[in-house]
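Protein in question kept underneath.
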Amino acid sequence: MAYNTKYMELATNEAQKNISTHEGGPFGTVIVKDNEIIAQGRNHVLSNNDPTAHGEIYTIRKACKKLGTYDLSDCELYTNAYSCPMCLGAIIWSNIKTCYYGNTAEEAKKIGFRDDNIYKFMNNGCKDTHTLNLEQHDHNLTIKPFKDFAENTEGKIY
């Protein structure tokens, strides 16, 4: 499929709804498959008290439920802003291959969102203990489920 402005308009309308409802930040998303809207949604972080309730996550969950699959490889995602690292991860995990966005991460930073801090943390090897202290422990204990999974799935992942 090719880019279609009408889907970005719908994503933007979803984002605009949060200006009056205060359910979350100004972020909206639409997922499309074969020129049909599968799901649309917006950020619900504040109304759900859930820092993972971003527009992309919310809409991916709705699309997966509607289609009865975790594999959205035949879908495209429209979002009014460049996705944060968490949402980019969810988009990749759901196998969506095309994501159209409107606003940049820099524009999100200008209105108070801190995605850039996460990108910097990741780009610097996750070593900034001020952002997050990551420590590995008990590898001998925790590796067992991985080994068991590999043996019981014959190498098939999802």
User: Anything to note?
Assistant: The chain has a mean pLDDT of 94. The two ends are 26 Å apart (CA to CA). The chain is about 45% helix and 15% strand. Residues 62 and 68 are 10 Å apart (CA to CA).
